[in-house]
Amino acid sequence: MSNDEIFAAAYREHYWAVSRYVARRLDGRADDVEEVVAEVFTVAWRRRTDLPTAALPWLYGVARNCLANAVRGHGRRRRLLDRLGNDDTAHGRHIAAGPEADTPGGWVHEALARLSAADQEVLRLTAWEQLGVDEVAVALGCGSRAASMRLHRARRRLRAEIDRMRPEPPNAEHSCMTAPKEHGHG
Questions:
Q1: Could you give the CA distance from residue 55 to residue 171 in angstroms, rounded to a whole number?
Q2: Does the global pTM surpass 0.70?
Q3: What are the residue boundaries of the RNA polymerase sigma-70 region domain, all occurrences included (predicted)?
Q4: Which of 40, 67, 154, 167 is the most exposed place for a label (fewest CB within 10 A)?
C-alpha cells in the first residue's frame, strides 16, 4: 500500500474519532472544531510517510498540537477584542446560566477543570478516547512508564479534588442514629 493509500485509510477510519476528540476539548464550537480537524489531517497528509500502523494515538498527538495552536490564536483574538472593547459583555449581551443549566455529573467536570492541563489531557485520553497506557504514551510523545506515572498521579489529584468538593458528612454527635445504651438488670 502506498503512503497516499495508508493516509486515505487512516482518514476514513479515524476522522470521526479525531473530530470527537477535538469537539470535546473545544466545548463543541463547531466552526473551530472543523478548522482544527482540517489542520490535523493537513499535518497528517504532509507527514504521511511518518504515519504509524496504529494511527489514532499519533493523530491524537497531532490534534493536541493543533488544539494548542488554536487556543493560543483564540486567546490572541480575545485579548484584541477586549482591548477594542468589542466583546459581548461590553455591549450588554452577557447571558447568565440558570440553575437548570447544571448537567448531570457536572461536579466531575468541575473537579477536572481544577487540574492542570496535562492532568486533564491524560485523564481524557484514557476516559474519553479509551486509550491504553501505550497509546497514551504515543499521543503524549513520551514513554509508556512516563505515561503510566502521569495517569496515576492525575487520577490521584482528581480524587483529591473530588474529595475537596464533597460536602462534609453530618456530625456524628448530632445524628439520630446513635447506638442505644445498654441497661443493666438488677
A1: 54
A2: no
A3: 20-77
A4: 167
